Amino acid sequence: MPETNLPKDFESQMLELLGQAEFEQFKTAINKPSRTSIRLNSAKNFSLSWANTSIPWSSTGFFLDERPSFTLDPAIHAGAYYVQEASSMFIEHILRSQNIPRGIYLDLAAAPGGKSTLLSSYLGDEGMLVANEVIQPRAQVLKENIIKWGLGNTVVTNNDPEHYGTLEGFFDLVLVDAPCSGEGMFRKDPQAREEWSIDSVQLCSARQKRIMDQAGALVKADGYLVYSTCTFNEQENEDMIRFLTEEFSYEPVRISIDNAWNIRETSVESEGKIFFGYRFFPHLVEGEGFFITVFKRSSDAYIQEPKRVKDFKHPYLKEIWDRDSSQLDEELGFDGKGKYYTLNDSFFRISKDWNLHFQKISQHLSLKYFGVEIGKKQKSDWIPNHEWALSILPKGDFPSYEILELEALEFLRKNELEIPDLPLGWVLITYKNLPLGWIKNLGKRVNNYYPKEWRIRM
Ligand code: SAM
Predict the structure, then answer these.
(1) Which of 18, 110, 345, 360 is geometrically suited to a Cys-Cys bond with 22, CB 3.0 to 4.6 A?
(2) Is the separation of the CB atoms in 234 and 311 below 8 Å?
């Protein structure tokens, strides 16, 4: 990789943070290529064929020896894994080592969805995640990644953090992976070096304060707030710890780390308590630059429990009554815990355990997606949706057909497939037993139902 000059002000800042000798190591590290890593979707059955090494703070993360062409691997389109740099996977260690209770979680700045898919996996069927992204086209990418991950426990919203104002004390955990000046991306993305300036750090810090001012209030008593950035400077990290703890009543959370991981702990004194943060430097850790800190909301803070609404009204969602929802679940061969809504006659399924939370969210926010979109029903026949294919829900009575890599790529390009002896009607296409989508055999012709906007062009 060609060496790009670092901004002078950035150099001074890093010299202060690291000292001369370490700063030299830092500079060498950011001019080396980064190591590719992925995180497996434990709800989908898939084993890696590439040479790999485990990421020490993640149960499902792996460094790959080489970077394959992910677009040409059908398994990624089936949501079998997510390409994510290793430092970000530390969130899993935080959740597990603190034994953070599952419940209703919010990822306030979620696109493209790396940390949301991690939270979704941690929650499994014991919680619901709200994944929010303010920028519309990015929210679309987030939705796609959530659909591919397929756990059915996530609601995607497209809102400014301010719109969450009515949900004070509502969440068991809020993650703010803040938009930042991106110093930790200087290796992966040399353009980030050109865009960096002292002014941009200040702008980012002001924006982060606005976001944290909202986010801090959304966590319920004894709930957790996790704040992270991919930048090193103190204005966007330590100063944000000070800001949050002066505005709201939070307790410190200290994370146990293995010395061999080379993650740097930093501490901040605020309101008479010591708070902790964790920095990942690219010359010490095989991952990108990253900072993360965790807080626990004080026990006397407010808790907002969603109330049962007698007559749920929504501009475009129609609630399916509980008894009919149970019948649908039985008919489709699911676990009986489904609650259904329709939108333009298409059925969506969420877990009934989180229905009241969902109703409250749907009343106040702009929904992009929720649960699993199953499809439409015509008389007694289902017209299955692509989202159902990619979800981990069983696929009812539909037959499936396993294809090999080349055919799978043709399917993902939305080309016609020539498959002999295919049953008539809807057929689920699988690759390495991972569902990829639907085709419909009309006898004379086979239609490929892979979504047009998702098709691969390579
Ligand atoms: N958490 C994501 C992941 O792991 O894939 C990455 C999030 S990225 C660091 C920050 C996100 O914040 C971006 O998607 C950006 O569009 C969004 N964002 C930008 N301005 C924002 C604002 N004022 N409030 C909330 N989010 C914002």
Answers:
(1) 18
(2) no
Torsion angles phi and psi, residue 314, rounded to 5: -150, 145
In-domain check, residue 385:
no
**Ligand 1 pocket test, candidate residues 108, 130, 135, 185, most atoms within 8 A of CB:** 135
Q: Is residue 334 part of a domain?
A: no
Q: Tokens at residue 158, please? A: 């497209």
- The 10s digit of each residue's pLDDT in 25-53 is 999 999 999 999 999 999 999 999 898 99
Convert the pLDDT of each residue in 271-321 to its tens digit.
999 999 999 999 999 999 999 999 999 999 999 999 998 889 999 999 999
Does the Cβ of 223 fall within 6 Å of ligand 1? no
**Token pair for 454:** 């998702």
The alpha carbon of 163 is separated from its chain's Cα centroid by a whole number of angstroms, namely 20
236 CB under 6 A from ligand 1?
Answer: no
Total number of domains in the chain? 2
Q: Is there a domain that residue 23 lies in?
A: yes
Partners of 177 in beta bridges? 228
Q: What is the CATH number of the domain that holds 421?
A: 3.10.450.720
* CATH classification at residue 192: 3.40.50.150
Same domain, 144 and 284: yes
Strand, coil or helix: 91: helix
Q: Which of 297, 325, 350 is the last residue of a domain?
A: 297
Is 234 inside any structural domain? yes
Any idea which residues carry the catalytic annotation?
230
Ligand 1 pocket, residue 134 CB under 6 Å: yes
* Phi, psi angles (nearest 5°) of residue 139: -65, -35
User: In which region does residue 297 sit, left (phi positive, over 0), alpha (psi from -120 to 50) or beta (all else)?
Assistant: beta
Q: Is the pTM of this model over 0.85?
A: yes
Listed residues 264, 297, 330: the one ending a domain: 297
Evaluate whether 427 touches 398 at the Cβ level (below 8 Å).
Answer: yes
